[in-house]
Write a structure and sequence with these properties.
- There is one protein chain.
- The protein has 117 residues and is mainly α.
- It contains 2 helices and no strands.
Length: 117
């Protein structure tokens, strides 16, 4: 019977060694998993922050675009009005009328009357 105890003790020592090795491997895997989780979590957060900043920049650019379009439309209307004014100023009768109103021009023998408002 003493032989059986020796065998059991050897098996127990071996089994303890195997169990310790398994625990070590498991702890190593858990540690690696936590590191990978932390790295991927950090990457996700950084990517999210960058996406948010890009969205804010896009919003600012779109707002600027709208403002520029409005300004462009106003400038285009003003240009059309000035072109119309230029065409009219090429007509002698309209030119005479403008000169009389703006600059109080009068022909010889005419008298200009001014009334206070």
């Amino acid at each position: 019977m003493p032989e059986n105890r020796t065998v059991l003790q050897m098996n127990n020592g071996y089994i303890e060694h195997v169990n310790r090795r398994r625990r070590f491997v498991r702890a190593t895997h858990i540690r690696r998993f936590k590191w990978l989780l932390a790295i991927f979590g950090t990457l996700i957060v950084l990517t999210g922050v960058q996406l948010w900043q890009t969205k804010q920049q896009l919003k600012a650019v779109n707002q600027s675009l709208v403002t520029t379009k409005v300004s462009y439309q106003q400038a285009k209307k003003e240009q059309a009005a000035l072109q119309q004014e230029t065409k009219l100023l090429k007509q002698p009768k309209y030119l005479e009328q403008v000169v009389r109103q703006k600059y109080d021009y009068a022909k010889k023998g005419e008298v200009v009357y001014r009334f206070a408002n």
